Amino acid sequence: MNKDMKRPVRKAVFPVAGLGTRFLPATKVMPKEMLPLVDRPLIQRAVEEAQEAGIEEFIFVSGRGKSLITQHFEIQPELREELERRDKLALLEKLSHSDIPSGKVQITMQQRALGLGHAVWCAKNLVGDEPFAVFLVDVMTLGEKGCMAQMVDAYNQHGGNVIASSPVPRDLTYKYGILDVENEGVDVSPINAMVEKPKPEDAPSNLHILGRYILQPEIFDILDERKIGAGGEIQLTDAMEKLMETQSFSSVKLKGETYDCGHHLGFIEANIAFALADPEFGDATHEILKKYINKDRKNAAA
Ligand code: G1P
């Protein structure tokens, strides 16, 4: 492996151009990435996960009607001053994670929805010639350590490309990218193969690609080919599979839980789980839930 393979991961790409039709009407005006998970938008949670992993530059692959996302990361001096004046220090701390310094946010446009591989390709010039992280904001994880921080630990040891994974029920493999790893029994394992959205009977395992990646810049040369894959889209998984011919890929089994916030029930569950895990809201949320689970569902609100 060449020594460049362990250059630090400084940049993160967030593909946020999707329309969010599943969440209509909530997302008629507001981007789905701005839906709050307990007390902060999904996109801020993803940016905080990146910050925890030492990432300093944030690249949003945006689309039409998505300008609220970048507005969220504007520094608002008046708001900060007002919170300081009122001595709201805890709020100031929460807010500080959305205050990204000058020159550290970049925006590029994905003008047509041609697939995840295409969305990542749109960041090519902004990423340049260095390794980078990709965050799918629909997916949130909860664990002692953030998912990307766990991946960076593995990257620092093994270099190359790193994909976070976790098991899914076999009958759901058709919804995800699925990995074939060398050793399913260990936390970090070399990947032998991967396939996008296989039928359960064709899936090499039940380890799914959960939506966090560390990739080497050579992926862009492959994405340049714009090869169409599953679902008629330019798939990131296909490009990664090609890159595997020349570079190493490791799977990091997430220590923690994964929540698919891209559909209603997953999003509701994530809100419950994150509220329960929150030092500020956890105990009170637990009490509220007890009130509901002990009652007949129809009369729960009475
Ligand atoms: C994408 C990826 C897939 C991954 C999934 C995680 O699929 O292509 O490999 O497992 O995200 O959520 P999508 O959900 O965009 O269809």
Structure commentary:
With 302 residues, the chain is α/β, with parallel strands linked by helices. The protein is built from eleven helices and 13 strands. The strands form three sheets. It has a nine-stranded mixed beta sheet. Strands 2-3 form a two-stranded antiparallel ribbon. A hairpin with a 6-residue loop joins strand 9 and strand 10. Helix 10 packs across helix 11. It is globular and about 55 Å long. 39% of the residues are buried. Bound molecules: 1-O-phosphono-alpha-D-glucopyranose (G1P). 1-O-phosphono-alpha-D-glucopyranose binds next to strand 11 and helix 9.
How does the SSE layout of this entry go?
Layout: E1 11-15, E2 36-37, E3 40-41, H1 42-52, E4 57-62, H2 67-72, H3 77-85, H4 89-96, E5 105-109, H5 116-121, H6 124-127, E6 132-135, E7 139-142, H7 147-158, E8 161-167, E9 177-181, E10 188-196, E11 207-215, H8 219-223, H9 236-243, E12 249-253, E13 257-260, H10 264-277, H11 282-293
Parallel strand pairs: 1-4, 1-6, 4-5, 8-12
Antiparallel strand pairs: 2-3, 6-11, 7-13, 8-11, 9-10, 10-12
Helix pairs in contact: 10-11
Bound molecules: 1-O-phosphono-alpha-D-glucopyranose.
Q: State the total count of DSSP E strands.
A: 13
The major beta sheet can be summarized as:
9 strands, mixed
Bound molecules: 1-O-phosphono-alpha-D-glucopyranose
Mean pLDDT: 93
For the record, give the distance between the C-alpha atoms at the N and C termini, rounded to a whole number: 64 Å
Strand order of the largest sheet: 5-4-1-6-11-8-12-10-9
N-to-C SSE string, H for helix and E for strand: EEEHEHHHEHHEEHEEEEHHEEHH
Class computed from helices, strands and strand pairing = alpha/beta
Flag low-confidence runs.
none
**Principal-axis shape:** globular
Radius of gyration from CA coordinates: 20 Å
Number of helices, counting only DSSP H or I runs of 4 residues or more: 11
Helix content: 25-40%
Strand content: 15-25%
